[in-house]
Design brief:
By secondary structure, the chain is α/β, with parallel strands linked by helices. 30% of the residues lie in helices and 20% in strands. It is built from 15 helices and 23 strands. Helix 1 links the parallel strand 12 and strand 13. Helix 1 crosses helix 5, helix 2 crosses helix 11 and helix 6 packs across helix 14. The termini are far apart. One of its GO terms (molecular function) is lyase activity. Keywords: Lyase. Belongs to the UxaA family. It holds the Pfam family GD_AH_C.
Length: 496
């Protein structure tokens, strides 16, 4: 029986992706042609659409995703046994910008009900955050937040602590990065007030941390020194009381989409991620940036092999040069630790059908849509311009999502093909790449991107944008309902 069980993304592709498990000998339709499966192919994996010689590039998304490590016959399963990465080390790039339209795409004005801060930034939540300077007082911060959260339920959107194990036994840039990320979190618009809990003797002194925070934001920050306090938990709760009293006056108001700052992230990707969830998120990125808002793309190792697509979209040569420096410095980070730059995908990615980093990257960059790259920021730095910002951070889910929040994202769109319960400081919308995951894990998933295959991308885009605006207006995500809120810091230096 002939049926549509394969997706071919571009006419140039030499492989397609199976929509379901395919049995050996099945006859399958590929556009106007048919293909006989030479092997059994799991759902979400690749099948050869034509014969591929050993050493030839394998094409998906219209670009090479590696080279054939052996001859591949039409209808064969294409995966780790016959496909290898072609990525190497650092490289030179030429500035060859793509032409951009002078006008943005027409779209209806969309708004959300958010909190407008005094400095003009918009928040999607009105919360109090408790940030420890050092791991020694992480549990103290949690105790303060738990007590204050119960005490002020309904007055603000919540009181939350974000623990971490660092802040001492660090040196130089490593300590500086910890301080910078904590300062970024303290500056996030979703934090109407922040209590910084210090120990007193740590390397990450509260005085130095405060100096990295803008004066207008410091007005909403209180500091507790645990070693000097009589009862540090009671004293901390009293300080939160004062922050809540000020934050309680905030009210949601109608805000245009140009004030929204979204972070885009993928984790536990599968063979469908680059076909459904990531392109859908790219459409949301376009809707936000076309309206004058901001999207942030991170996970720099997961653009290796697709970086030139972003470089062509650099707003100017300065942004192009910064992108080249960011990519090559991250490659040197791998090489300096004796690791190949292609040390990716993860075991879960491979089981889900992703074979090489090039394939993963070509799917991952689709979360950025088609917007101009207007800025490049280093780890811990905050966004400066509307449009698409590239942010330095690794692919690790918690580390990169924390960096997105520290950069100023007030909402994160997180795509996944395998599923994860993790949540982060700002509302995190979990988007399943396939309907099976969405049906199996409704407690984790907020949106089924598999619907794009059944109802079309336009309908799925409209539905996802509705979810984004509802979430920005206060509807809790699955992670928020499950009280999943974590941070993780990227430690790159020695430990004393």
């Amino acid at each position: 029986m002939t049926e549509s069980a394969i997706i071919r993304i571009t006419p140039e592709d030499s492989v397609g992706t199976t929509l379901r498990a395919v049995a050996v000998g099945e006859t399958l339709s590929v556009g106007d042609a048919t293909l006989i499966a030479a092997e059994a192919v799991p759902a979400g994996h690749k099948i050869a659409l034509r014969s591929i010689r050993s050493g030839d590039p394998v094409i998906k998304f219209g670009f090479p995703i590696g080279t054939a490590s052996s001859a591949i016959s039409a209808g064969a399963h294409v995966h780790s046994h016959n496909l290898a990465t072609a990525l190497a080390g650092t490289q030179g790039y030429r500035y060859m910008p793509d032409p951009f339209p002078l006008t943005k795409r027409d779209q209806p004005q969309r708004n959300f009900e958010g909190y407008l801060r005094a400095d003009g930034r918009a928040a999607t939540r009105n919360e109090i955050w408790v940030l420890p300077t050092v791991g020694c007082v992480a549990r103290t911060a949690e105790k303060i937040a738990a007590s204050a959260h119960a005490r002020h339920r309904g007055t603000v959107d919540g009181v939350y602590a974000f623990k971490h194990p660092f802040g001492c036994s660090q040196l130089g840039d490593d300590l500086g990065a910890t301080r910078t990320v904590l300062a970024g979190l303290a500056s996030n618009p979703n934090a109407a007030g922040v209590l910084i809990v210090g120990l007193g003797c740590e390397s990450n002194q509260t005085s130095a941390l405060l100096e990295t925070i803008a004066p207008e934001i410091r007005r909403n920050i209180r500091v507790l020194g645990a070693q000097q306090a009589g009862d540090e938990v009671a004293d901390g709760v009293a300080l939160v009381d004062a922050l809540v009293a000020s934050a309680s006056f905030a009210r949601r108001t109608t805000i245009a989409l140009d004030k929204l700052v979204i972070g885009v992230k993928c984790g536990g990707s599968d063979g469908y991620s680059g076909l459904t969830a990531n392109p859908l998120v790219g459409r949301i990125s376009d809707a936000v940036t076309d309206a004058g808002g901001t999207a942030i793309l991170t996970e720099i190792p997961e653009i290796f092999g697709a970086e030139e697509l972003l470089m062509r979209r650099a707003a100017d040569e300065h942004v192009f040069d910064a992108t080249v420096a960011l990519v090559n410095s991250f490659k040197r980070y791998f090489i300096g630790h004796g690791e190949p730059v292609s040390e990716n995908p993860s075991p879960g990615n491979i089981a889900g059908g992703i074979t090489t980093l090039e394939e993963k990257s070509l799917g991952a960059v689709q979360k950025a849509g088609h917007a101009r790259v207007t800025d490049v920021r280093l780890y811990g730095e905050r966004v400066r311009h509307p449009g698409l910002t590239l942010l330095e951070a690794p692919g690790n889910d918690a580390v990169s999502s924390t960096a997105l929040a520290a950069a100023g994202a007030t909402l994160i769109l997180f795509t996944t093909g395998r599923g994860t319960p993790l949540g982060f400081p700002v509302p995190t919308i979990k988007i399943a790449s396939n309907s099976e995951l969405a049906a199996r894990k409704p407690g984790w998933i907020d949106f089924d991107a598999g619907s794009a295959l059944t109802h079309g991308f336009n309908a799925a885009t409209d539905a996802l944008l509705d979810v984004v605006l509802a979430t920005a207006s206060g509807t809790p995500t699955a992670a928020e309902r499950n009280d999943e809120r974590e941070i993780a810091l990227w430690k790159r230096g020695v430990t004393l």
